[in-house]
TrEMBL record:
Species annotation: Skermanella aerolata
Annotated signal sequence range: none
Region (Disordered): 23-42
Stated name of the protein: Sulfite oxidase-like oxidoreductase
SUPFAM superfamilies, sorted: Oxidoreductase molybdopterin-binding domain
Compositionally biased tracts (Basic and acidic residues): 23-39
Cross-referenced Gene3D superfamilies: Oxidoreductase, molybdopterin-binding domain
Length: 223
C-alpha cells in the first residue's frame, strides 16, 4: 500500500500472527550460539531472495521532500535534507541480515554513512543512553546507544550500488546488523536520542527489548 505516512497502523493479519508467536515463544530452539564457528544464528535458515517485511504501508517519500530530524539529548540537533545527508562521510558496509521470523540473508552490500559518523555530527550529551528510530509509516524501534553506534551500523541510501527500493525502506533506512532486522527501521524520519528507554512498536508487542540473534533474544520474558 502506498501512503504518505499519516494513516493509522493497520491491524494486519501478519501483525496479529507475529504477536501470537511472541506469546507462544515460536521458533525458540534453546540451542547455544557459537558466533565464531557458525555464521547462522540458532533457529535461523538461509534465504537467497530478499523478503519484504513491514506493517503493510510503503510510504512514498521523494528525495526532494525527504528530511531527517536528529533530535533529543544532543548538543547539535539538526534537520538534514537529502543534499546535506549525501555530503556526510560515505561508507560501504557488507553484513548479514537475521530476521526474527527465522530467515537470514548473507552478504548485503550497503552504502551510506556510519552511525559512528552520525554521532560525531550530532554530539550526544553525556546523559544520552538510548536511541528511538521513528519512521514515516508510524513504526518505531528502540536501541541502546552502544547498539546504535556499533561497528557495521549504517544509515543506508543504497544496496548493491543502487538506490534502496521503496519496499526495502528507500530513500533511507537504518541497518543494525548485529541485532534482529526489526531494529533496522525503514523510511527513517527521525532519530531521537534519549536519557530513558522507550520501547518501540514490536518491543511493546512481546518482542525482546534488545534482539541479539546470537542469544536468541526473540521475545521478552513472560511476566
Ligand atoms: N519503518 C519500518 N521499518 C521496519 C519495519 C516496518 O514495519 N516499518 N519492519 C521491520 C521488520 S520486522 C523487518 S524483518 C525488516 C524487513 O526489512 P525488509 O523488508 O527490507 O526485508 O524491516 C524492519 N523495519
Ligand atoms: Mo521482522
Amino acid at each position: 500500500m502506498a501512503s504518505d505516512g499519516d494513516e493509522p497502523i493497520p491491524d494486519s493479519k501478519l501483525t496479529r500472527t507475529k504477536e501470537r508467536w511472541a506469546r507462544e515463544g515460536r521458533f525458540l530452539t534453546g540451542r547455544d550460539a557459537r558466533p565464531d564457528a557458525d555464521r547462522l544464528p540458532p533457529g535461523q535458515h538461509l534465504v537467497r531472495d530478499w523478503p519484504v517485511l513491514d506493517l503493510g504501508l510503503h510510504p512514498t517519500v521523494s528525495q526532494e521532500r525527504w528530511r531527517l530530524h536528529l533530535t533529543g539529548a544532543v548538543d547539535n540537533p539538526q534537520i538534514w535534507d537529502w543534499a546535506r545527508f549525501m555530503d556526510q562521510p560515505q561508507t560501504q558496509a557488507r553484513s548479514d541480515i537475521h530476521c526474527v521470523t527465522t530467515w537470514s540473508r548473507y552478504d548485503n552490500d550497503w552504502q551510506g554513512m556510519t552511525t559512528a559518523d552520525l554521532l560525531v555530527a550530532v554530539s550526544p550529551r553525556a546523559e544520552a543512553r538510548f536511541v528511538v528510530l521513528h519512521s514515516h509509516d508510524g513504526y518505531t524501534t528502540n536501541l541502546m546507544l552502544e547498539d546504535f553506534a556499533a561497528e557495521g551500523a549504517i544509515l543506508a541510501h543504497s544496496w548493491s550500488g543502487k538506490p534502496l527500493s521503496q519496499e526495502h525502506g528507500g530513500p533511507a533506512r537504518l541497518v543494525v546488523p548485529h541485532l534482529y532486522f526489526w531494529k533496522s527501521a525503514k523510511w527513517i524520519e527521525r532519530i531521537e536520542f534519549r536519557t530513558a528507554d522507550d520501547p518501540g512498536f514490536w518491543e511493546v508487542r512481546g518482542y525482546h527489548n534488545r534482539g541479539d540473534p546470537w542469544n536468541e533474544e526473540r521475545y521478552s520474558e513472560p511476566e
